TrEMBL record:
NAD-dependent epimerase/dehydratase domain ranges (all copies): 22-146, 188-287
One Pfam family per UniProt: Epimerase
Highest rank taxon of the organism: Bacteria
PANTHER family: BIFUNCTIONAL POLYMYXIN RESISTANCE PROTEIN ARNA, UDP-D-APIOSE_UDP-D-XYLOSE SYNTHASE 2
Taxonomic source organism: Streptomyces lasiicapitis
Identification of the protein by name: NAD-dependent dehydratase
Length: 375
């Protein structure tokens, strides 16, 4: 079999390749599992590689799919990673510790899994001659999203002060005049400003990937996912996303507890849309090796991956509670210092580069998620 060499154009005019073998790190996780399914459905072979961390999994990993080899291993383990890379054409790096964590004592574990792990993986790819990488990036690299002041134009508000949050002043203010700001869509060229340990590690993963691409002539793409939700999301843990916290509360017969005043704006993107974006990007990047132009040698490119439809956390809680038929959400005024107020994506670059577009709308996605199983 010729793997990945015979690039062709699909009907949509997108670069594509036949029969790649893809290593999916974090393949037993929430998004990784959907990526595996998307790749298998498009006729690729998959080696999944996952440490099945206790912070993410309460039991054994899911069963391997037909056409998938599921390896339990840690990305920090160079020998195991080298073995898993055997015969692999492209890598999709999803493995990471996610969420805000319990407290700062988690920092070494985050940096170990996410940054040391990425360095070990990239070094093994350099040795094995694997040149195509799609990284699971995150919108957390932006910190607070994009804001404009009526008098000062686009501004960058600093971290919100604990005293403001405690007094219920949740909106960031203009650093020059203190006026309330209007939130907008954040583009990839916005300055990065990670606000917590996890965000810092996600940014370092991108910088490592860019350095690897330059040093090896590799092609690296980071898809900066916004708030991903859908079937198979982990249950509520200190590492879980807000949609999973609300869904778990409803399953216990409790009202979703909405922090701040519920007005935080996010972009909730369905996990199947994210998996489709990843598969499309992998094919395009791989296709570039056979003369396509989606990514050039030695480059790193970041793409926002969002639905393009901003919603508040309060709206999401209501949509989910309605669809579930559970108690109405309670707005608590609680807050977490590492949280940002608004961050919503402009995903135009991803749509233009790969012809991707989200298929699952907010209302339909939340209705399905209300009924779906959590992990
Ligand atoms: N869920 C979201 O909304 C979201 C948003 C932005 C980015 N992301 C990124 O997407 C990726 C997948 O996240 P997810 O939501 O599916 O989380 P998840 O916890 O369900 O999946 C992550 C997987 O990585 C594995 N893993 C962690 N450390 C590892 C290590 N050292 N070696 C091998 N495997 C390891 C875990 O066991 C887990 O199965 C992560 O890189 C995350 O940063 C997620
Ligand atoms: Zn101002």
């Amino acid at each position: 079999m010729t793997r990945g060499r015979d690039a062709r154009r699909t009907g949509a005019g997108l670069p594509s390749v036949d029969g790649m073998r893809v290593l999916v790190t974090g393949g037993a996780g929430f998004i990784g599992t959907h990526v595996v399914d998307a790749l298998l459905a498009r006729g690729h072979e998959v080696v999944s590689y996952d440490a099945v961390l206790a912070s993410a999994h309460s039991g054994p990993p899911r069963a391997a799919r037909a056409g998938e080899r599921l390896v339990v291993g840690d990305v920090r383990d160079p020998d195991a990673v080298a073995a898993a890379l055997h015969g692999v054409d492209a890598v999709c790096h999803q493995a990471a510790m996610v969420g805000l964590g319990k407290d700062f004592a988690d920092a070494p574990e985050y940096v170990g899994c996410n940054d040391l792990g990425t360095a070990v993986l990239l070094a093994a790819m350099a040795r094995a001659g694997v040149r195509d990488l799609v990284l699971a990036g995150s919108m957390v690299v932006y910190g607070e999203g994009r804001y404009a002041c009526a008098s000062h134009g686009v501004v960058r508000p600093g971290p919100r002060a604990g005293a403001d949050l405690a007094a219920g002043r949740f909106e960031p203010r203009c650093p020059s005049c203190g006026a309330e700001l209007a939130p907008g869509l954040v583009g990839e060229d916005a300055p990065v400003d990670p606000r917590n340990v996890y965000a810092t590690t996600k940014l370092a993963q991108e910088h490592l990937s860019a350095a690897w691409a330059r040093a090896t002539g590799g092609r690296a793409v980071s898809l900066r996912y916004h708030n991903v939700y859908g079937p198979g999301m982990p249950r509520d843990t200190p590492y879980a996303g807000v949609a999973a916290l609300f869904r778990s509360a409803l399953a216990r017969g409790e009202a979703p507890r909405v922090f701040e005043d519920g007005g935080q704006r996010r972009d909730f993107v369905h996990v199947r849309d994210v998996a489709a974006a990843v598969a499309t990007a992998l094919e395009a990047v791989r296709g570039s090796g056979a003369g396509m132009s989606a990514a050039s040698e030695g480059t790193f490119t970041a793409y926002n991956t969002g639905s393009g439809e901003p919603h508040t956390v309060g709206e999401m809680a209501r949509a989910l509670a309605d669809a579930y038929g559970g108690p109405a959400p309670v707005v608590t005024g609680e807050y977490r210092l590492g949280d940002v107020r608004h961050v919503t994506a402009d995903s135009a670059r991803l749509r233009a580069a790969f012809g991707w577009k989200p298929e699952v709308g907010f209302a339909d996605g939340m209705r399905e998620f209300a009924r779906a199983a959590l992990r």
